[in-house]
């Protein structure tokens, strides 16, 4: 069975059990402060499990792109070393939202594996939760008995809290789980030693394939468990592992999902898979990571230097580094694997094909820049090795290794590898201490303490009315306290709210609530698991009463101006630059807007102006908003709406149309484009390979910008006596200036000649060497070197110490004849270091010529005196 057939058979099976098949949610999560990447199939249903959203179907199934490289699930270090953990993998899952429970979940899992896929029953094991004293929970006998219909007792394994009790987080829905494991060892080996002891023991051939989670409790912030009224099922099966089982392979990397990529790596590097342990690990790492990187780019997450983008950048660098260290790749190579990846995954994920050019360019540019960093790091390391050896040490400072890791992306093992070749080691303890300290810093910076929700009104689903109203009567349905960085804030949820929660790039509303006696400010509005959360610094005293809620109108209007302008800008870019322009990110703020989009070159002045004209023309056309709420994704698509990443299953979407611009959007907009007033681009620049960023302003901000610029122009014009054209005046000024500089330079050259003569005349002779020590006119301060070398041309055996003050900064030059330098009697560097102390400076150079700069101009005479004494002593 090839991989596509496996995926399809899962869907077909669960369809036959009345499940609705839904698409994978994006792997990159944009609107959840607690999670950067989807790490399990259930993430997209979190709000349903929490009771904040109602499901559109009670049974669903899908294949979900998951990434486990950060936070609670981090498999990164396993990847490549073993053959069944990936960074990105697909999780096949089926869900029941308060519908069926353990019996159906277990029966169907068994039916699918053994009857549909015909997996050998004798190879399967199930684990059940053994109970936990601390949690006061008994063994999950219900699950045990259900499994016991299919499996003998000895193949039902007890699992502890760590393996068999699933929790969404420190608080929230949780429950026991049952995992299905498979023993893939050869028959003969299996009969010699049964697999029971090998389950959950990291054996490469006895692996977990499916986890069935039975969500039946809610954990409160104080740790107590309460039973859930509606019980849910959440299952997840590793697709790559299942393919390996069905294709009878030794490793996930031998399946049709990875083998073509491994082959491509072998072709590029000329190294065969299976030749050496290190080489094989590197090839698996690379085959794994190219998928992760390509998929995250299609999901809109490019490598960058913070947050999710940084995680992706680190993964890319990890692959490049493995290629560099173990496969000898000194040139970019990852981007060449794209065709092989598209061959294996392009059918199921056409976005890979659509965005192939962008993905390739981004990866290539990242590779080039990281290879450069690697080279810098290696040369740094070489210097460190020389120093360490010089001091006759064998151990390199752990701090140095940490700096290499932190700033140059050099992982410890690479540093160690290079050191080992030179018989050196790193002080690991120091390295780990630095690492720990950094982790603590990061942890403290982000630590948030969240208390339980306190519910005032039960079973109320919050309604958002902010598209139509900026004020309303509200009651608080629940609230909680959060503490972050020693600051206490409160989150309030209302029955109904006019406040827009930050999302889709648009900032959250601010405003206040008022009950007649007390006014409480809302400092921000955010979305969390589908709840609109209003953030305040204090709780209203009488929290149970009625309030009037007011959104800050001015801020909302300026934000709306910028949001609608963003749509017009998007359309303009597609008109002026071409339809390859795709939105990659945006920020809609009351003061300005920012729009990131895929485009491969800098926009010309003309293109920028054309875009501005296009937008302003549509502002003047004063189009009215046409808003379509709650239409199915498919319908919006047919209308030609521009889609963003991240439309989720079952989503009813909102389409916003102004003239010919039509986009899916949940944000707030103007009623008529004329309200925007005026649109002006502030800047256009590259933010990463293939991605450009435009920053722009509208309305009053744009007006203020133009007025400011105009004021500046007037002020500049007034600086010129002659009236007339400013541009011509400035050009003339620049020309005059360069003419004057040239003349001044000629004069200085003449002056050098005069000064040189004076200096030569001032020379005193000590034991056959002419000695010149002098402070020269500050006009020549920038010509000290010239002067010194001209002296050298004319003098015989000599030494000169010259000082000058340039812009209040003292400078010294020492020059000697080659003969004197050769004799070793006077070393210019030694001399300059000796006397530069007087000017609070340091210096350097060569034995016959050295210079120094300092801070203390008053010490210049003393420095020259000191030099004179030094020279006299050395020559006498
Ligand atoms: P393991 O113990 O093997 O790491 P897990 O307990 O972390 O698995 P779950 O969180 O229960 O796994 O995920 C459900 C299923 O997803 C697992 O049964 C497994 O088949 C698959 N899976 C989990 N992590 C990975 C991974 N990193 N790469 C590939 N498949 C995975
Ligand atoms: Mg795991």
TrEMBL record:
One of its GO terms (molecular function) is zinc ion binding. Pfam families: DHHA1, tRNA-synt_2c, tRNA_SAD. Binds 1 zinc ion per subunit. It is found in: Cytoplasm. Its main location: cytoplasm. Its EC number is 6.1.1.7. It catalyses: tRNA(Ala) + L-alanine + ATP = L-alanyl-tRNA(Ala) + AMP + diphosphate. Residues 1-708 form the Alanyl-transfer RNA synthetases family profile domain. One of its GO terms (biological process) is alanyl-tRNA aminoacylation. The keyword Cell membrane does not apply. It is an enzyme of class 6 (ligase). Residues 421-448, 723-757 form a coiled coil. Its cofactor is Zn(2+). CDD domains: AlaRS_core (cd00673). It comes from the Bacteria. Zn(2+) binds at residues 563, 567, 665, 669. One of its GO terms (cellular component) is cytoplasm. Keywords: Aminoacyl-tRNA synthetase, ATP-binding, Coiled coil, Cytoplasm, Ligase, Metal-binding, Nucleotide-binding, Protein biosynthesis, RNA-binding, tRNA-binding, Zinc. Catalyzes the attachment of alanine to tRNA(Ala) in a two-step reaction: alanine is first activated by ATP to form Ala-AMP and then transferred to the acceptor end of tRNA(Ala). Also edits incorrectly charged Ser-tRNA(Ala) and Gly-tRNA(Ala) via its editing domain. Consists of three domains; the N-terminal catalytic domain, the editing domain and the C-terminal C-Ala domain. The editing domain removes incorrectly charged amino acids, while the C-Ala domain, along with tRNA(Ala), serves as a bridge to cooperatively bring together the editing and aminoacylation centers thus stimulating deacylation of misacylated tRNAs. This is Alanine--tRNA ligase. It comes from Saccharicrinis carchari. The gene is alaS.
């Amino acid at each position: 069975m090839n991989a596509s057939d496996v995926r399809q058979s899962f869907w077909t099976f669960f369809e036959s059990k009345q499940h609705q098949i839904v698409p994978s949610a994006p792997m990159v999560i944009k609107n959840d402060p607690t999670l950067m990447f989807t790490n399990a199939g259930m993430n997209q249903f979190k709000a349903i499990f929490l009771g904040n959203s109602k499901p559109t179907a009670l049974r669903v199934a899908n294949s979900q792109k998951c990434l486990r490289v950060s936070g609670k699930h981090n498999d990164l270090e396993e990847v490549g070393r073993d053959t069944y953990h990936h960074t990105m993998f697909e999780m096949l899952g089926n869900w029941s939202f308060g519908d069926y429970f353990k019996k159906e979940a277990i029966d169907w899992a068994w039916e699918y594996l053994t009857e549909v896929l015909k997996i050998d029953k004798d190879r399967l094991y199930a684990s059940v939760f053994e109970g936990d004293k601390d949690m006061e929970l008994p063994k999950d006998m219900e699950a045990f008995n259900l499994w016991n219909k299919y499996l003998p007792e000895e193949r039902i394994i007890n699992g502890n809290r760590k393996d068999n009790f699933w929790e969404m987080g420190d608080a929230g829905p949780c429950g026991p789980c049952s995992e299905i494991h498979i023993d893939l060892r050869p028959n003969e080996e299996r009969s010699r030693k049964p697999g029971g002891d090998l389950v959950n023991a990291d054996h490469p051939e006895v692996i977990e394939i499916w986890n069935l989670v039975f969500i039946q409790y809610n954990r409160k912030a104080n740790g107590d468990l309460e039973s859930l009224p509606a019980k849910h099922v959440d299952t997840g099966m590793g697709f790559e592992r299942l393919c390996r089982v069905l294709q009878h392979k030794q490793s996930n990397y031998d399946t049709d999902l990875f083998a073509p990529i491994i082959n491509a790596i072998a072709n590029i590097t000329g190294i065969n898979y299976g030749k050496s342990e290190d080489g094989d690990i590197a090839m698996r790492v690379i085959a794994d990571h190219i998928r992760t990187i390509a998929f995250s780019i299609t999901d809109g997450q490019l490598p960058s230097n913070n947050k999710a983008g940084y995680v992706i950048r680190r993964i890319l660098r990890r692959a490049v580094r493995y290629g560099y260290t173990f496969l000898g790749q000194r040139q970019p190579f990852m981007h060449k694997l794209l065709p092989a990846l598209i061959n294996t995954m392009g059918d199921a994920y056409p976005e890979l094909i659509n965005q192939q050019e962008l993905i390739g360019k981004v990866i290539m540019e990242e590779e080039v820049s990281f290879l450069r960093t690697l080279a810098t790091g290696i040369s740094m390391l070489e210097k460190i090795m020389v120093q360490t050896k010089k001091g006759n040490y064998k151990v390199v400072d752990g701090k140095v290794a940490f700096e290499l890791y932190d700033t140059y992306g050099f992982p410890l093992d690479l540093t160690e590898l290079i050191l080992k070749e030179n018989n050196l080691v790193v002080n690991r303890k120091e390295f780990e201490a630095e690492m720990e300290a950094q982790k603590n810093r990061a942890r403290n910076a982000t630590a948030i303490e969240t208390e339980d929700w306190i519910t005032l009104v039960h079973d109320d689903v919050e309604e958002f009315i902010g598209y139509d109203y900026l004020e309303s009567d509200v009651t608080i349905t629940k609230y909680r306290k959060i503490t972050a960085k020693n600051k206490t804030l409160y989150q309030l949820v209302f029955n109904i709210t006019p406040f827009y929660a930050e999302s889709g790039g648009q900032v959250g509303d601010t405003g206040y609530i008022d009950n007649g006696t007390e006014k409480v400010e809302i400092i921000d509005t955010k979305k969390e698991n589908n709840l609109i959360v209003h953030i305040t610094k204090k709780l209203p005293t009488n929290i149970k009463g009625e309030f009037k809620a007011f959104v800050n109108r001015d801020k909302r209007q300026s934000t709306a101006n910028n949001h609608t302008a963003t749509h017009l800008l998007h359309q303009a870019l597609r008109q002026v630059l071409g339809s390859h322009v795709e939105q990659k990110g945006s920020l809609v703020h009351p003061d300005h807007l920012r729009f990131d989009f895929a485009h491969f070159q800098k926009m010309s002045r003309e293109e920028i102006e054309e875009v501005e004209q296009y937008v302003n023309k549509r502002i003047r056309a004063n189009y009215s908003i046409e808003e379509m709420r709650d239409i199915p994704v498919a319908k919006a698509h047919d209308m030609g709406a521009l889609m963003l990443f991240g439309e989720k299953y079952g989503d009813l979407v909102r389409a916003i149309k102004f003239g010919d611009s039509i986009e899916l959007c949940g944000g707030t907009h103007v009623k008529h484009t004329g309200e925007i007033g005026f649109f002006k681009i502030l800047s256009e620049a590259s933010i990463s390979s293939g991605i450009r960023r435009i920053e722009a302003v509208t309305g009053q901000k744009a007006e203020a910008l133009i007025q400011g610029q105009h004021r500046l122009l007037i002020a500049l014009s007034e600086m010129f006596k002659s009236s007339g054209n400013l541009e011509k005046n400035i050009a003339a000024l620049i020309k005059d200036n360069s003419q004057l500089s040239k003349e001044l330079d000629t004069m200085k050259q003449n002056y050098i000649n005069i000064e040189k003569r004076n200096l030569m005349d001032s020379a005193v002779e000590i034991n056959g060497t002419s000695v010149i020590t002098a402070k020269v006119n500050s006009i020549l301060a920038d010509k000290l070197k010239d002067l010194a070398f001209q002296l050298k041309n004319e003098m015989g055996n000599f030494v000169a110490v010259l000082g000058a003050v340039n812009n209040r900064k003292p400078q010294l030059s020492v020059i000697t004849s080659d003969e004197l330098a050769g004799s070793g009697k006077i070393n210019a560097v030694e001399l300059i270091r000796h006397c530069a102390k007087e000017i609070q400076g340091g210096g350097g150079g060569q034995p016959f010529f050295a210079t120094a700069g300092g801070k203390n101009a008053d010490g210049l005479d003393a420095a020259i005196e000191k030099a004179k004494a030094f020279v006299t002593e050395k020559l006498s």
